[in-house]
Design brief:
Layout: E1 7-10, H1 20-35, E2 39-42, H2 54-67, H3 90-102, E3 106-109, H4 113-125, H5 141-149, E4 155-158, E5 166-170, E6 174-178, E7 186-189, H6 197-207, E8 212-216, H7 223-233, E9 239-243, E10 246-247, H8 263-268, H9 274-282, H10 299-305, E11 316-317, H11 321-333, H12 336-349, H13 359-367, H14 377-385, H15 402-418, H16 424-438, H17 442-454, H18 462-485
Parallel strand pairs: 1-2, 8-9, 10-11
Antiparallel strand pairs: 3-4, 4-7, 5-6
Helix pairs in contact: 1-10, 6-7, 9-11, 12-13, 15-16, 15-17, 15-18, 16-17, 16-18, 17-18
The chain binds one RNA strand of 77 nucleotides through α4, β4, β6, β7 and α6.
RNA sequence: GGCGCGUUCGUCUAGAGGCCUAGGAUAACAGAUUUUCAUUCUGUAGAUCGCGGGUUCGAAUCCCGCACGCGCUACCA
């Protein structure tokens, strides 16, 4: 298929919030399409009626857009090879199901789940590989009639062609060979007349002219079955590439219960930037040929560099330490107005401000290089918006005394009362001169003022805070500190 | 149980027989700048390349075996 147009896809099932692993697969597919001038398609695999919801479908699309992974074809623009929701493609699957049945490549199976379970259990006890016995392969008309009269609804089972091994080249993992004798006939249409995942998948990939199926390694073992299906249906077989999994720190599979896996709930809403997510995610499995000394990559950079030959085969443990670094980095790089805009929701939610105002530009500027996540803006800046409460001892810096601190504060208050220029440079000269005059270290003067203004052991610098609060508020907070020490 | 995939610093990784006394990033630690925190800069520590055999003058790199992890083995996707 390689001479045709490059078309990749992501096919999430809306049975949960957009998963971090799906995001990575989407990213790699998107990058591959962009890099080689192809198309990227979004398809909703919502055949599991019981678990699929519209809320999740929306979440998936929102998160993809948020990450910057736009798609050329998808549920809302179904013109070309749509519809792009499997729930709307029932007739297509039925057509192919009929084809299999007519050509006797599949058969109706009336076995109940209980019967299948029992059969499997027996095989396990005998240490045989569990696989379907094929007992419905050659049912007589009488038997079929009997099952129908019982009210049993048949599923459609695909007849495995066991004649020869299935070989294919995985573009990441390499040459692959499977023995179909081990498979057993599998279900293609469920008894509710909905297609099983493998069946719907190969049909859609083919009908949507997907040239490369890049997906998680958990699908690697399914691939030979889909190839068999494609052959039986006389459909073209796409290229395949299987991405290794991302795991927990204990090397088990990421789970919804134990781990932060929801892009929207655990990352976007917690204050991570899409730029950081992309940069972090792409490095889980991909590393550039020409390594740079840093590892900063934008989506734009990546569309020029990404290739499958640089994708690794081994699984990666999902550890957000490095994500935090990237997040801090991109926050520092961000234009101030943009940062203020993105911090606003957190400030509003914490009730620190009522509406957008000019002040937050200054506020954000003071903590920009201290933030790892946008959500931290709250704890970093709360003292700028409200009265503060802190223990008096905090005013006294290490290796000094209450008396010295009090003296420093009182003398500072005096010069700050006389001073009108609260700009950084002016204040710097003023307070250092005061320190020299009193025989104090700069720290003995500056620490207590900073604490008086912020109430925190760590905060932006003294001069910046004086400038931020202005004369009246600064003096008021310093006076309060003096009273606390008396 | 069977089949498949994988195994290099805590973590993400580079590495395709000699360039490896194993490189980078991050995290950790230390120092410099500094009133604190953060930023920035510099440095330190950190992998006997899962284990055991082989091939070779020479192996993280090739071959075989084993161990461990993960996946599939569903009318879930």
């Amino acid at each position: 298929m390689s001479e045709e147009e490059i078309r990749t896809r992501i096919a999430p099932s809306p049975t949960g919030y957009f998963h971090i692993g799906t995001a990575r697969a989407a990213l790699f597919n998107w990058l591959y399409a962009k890099r080689f001038g192809g198309k990227f398609i979004l398809r909703m695999e919502d055949t599991d009626k019981a678990r699929s919801t519209e809320e999740y479908a929306i979440d998936i699309m929102e998160c993809m857009s948020w990450l910057g992974l736009d798609w050329d074809e998808g549920p809302e623009n179904p013109d070309l090879y749509g519809p792009y929701r499997q729930s709307e493609r029932a007739e297509i699957y039925q057509k192919y199901a009929k084809q299999l049945l007519d050509e006797r490549l599949a058969y109706k199976c009336y076995c109940t789940p209980d019967e299948l379970e029992a059969e499997k259990k027996l095989q396990m006890e005998r240490h045989e590989p569990p696989k379907y016995s094929g007992r419905c392969r050659n049912l007589s008309p009488e038997q079929i009639l009997a099952f129908e009269n019982e009210g049993r609804k048949p599923a459609l089972r695909f007849k495995i062609d066991e004649s020869s091994p299935i070989k294919f080249k995985d573009l990441i993992k390499g040459e692959m060979e499977f023995d179909p004798k081990l498979f057993g006939d599998f279900i293609v249409m469920k008894s509710d007349n909905l297609p099983a995942f493998m069946f719907a998948g190969i049909i859609d990939d083919s009908e949507m002219k997907i040239s490369l199926v890049m997906r998680g390694e958990d699908h690697l073992s399914n691939t030979p079955r889909q190839i068999l299906l494609a052959k039986a249906l006389d459909l073209p077989i796409p290229d395949y590439a299987h991405l290794s999994m991302i795991l927990n720190s204990d090397k088990t599979k990421m789970s919804k219960r134990k781990n932060p896996v929801s892009v929207s709930k655990d990352f976007r809403d917690k204050g991570y930037l899409p730029e950081a997510m992309i940069n972090f995610l792409v490095l889980l499995g991909w590393s550039p040929k020409e390594g740079k000394s840093d590892e900063i990559y934008s989506l734009d950079d990546l569309t020029k560099e990404f290739d499958l030959s640089e994708v690794g085969k081994s699984p990666a443990i999902f550890d957000t330490t490095k994500l935090d670094f990237f997040n801090g980095y991109y926050i520092r790089q961000m234009e101030l107005g943009e940062l203020a805009k993105r911090c606003l929701p957190y400030l509003l939610a914490a009730d620190l401000i009522k509406k957008e105002d000019e002040k937050i530009l200054k506020v954000v500027a003071l903590v920009q290089e201290r933030m790892k996540k946008l959500s931290e803006v709250v704890e970093l800046t709360d003292f700028m918006f409200k009265e503060i409460d802190y223990p008096a001892e905090l005013l006294i810096t290490k290796g000094t005394t209450k008396e010295i601190t009090l003296k420093a504060l009182e003398e500072s208050a005096k010069v700050l009362t006389d001073e009108t220029d609260y700009s950084r440079d002016s204040l710097d000269g003023l307070l250092r001169a005061l320190a020299t005059k009193l025989g104090f270290t700069a720290g003995q003067i500056l620490w207590p003022i900073r604490v008086a203004l912020s109430g925190k052991p760590a905060s932006p610098g003294t001069f910046e805070l004086l400038d931020f609060f202005g004369k009246d508020e600064s003096l008021s907070r310093i006076k309060k500190a003096i009273d606390m020490l008396k």
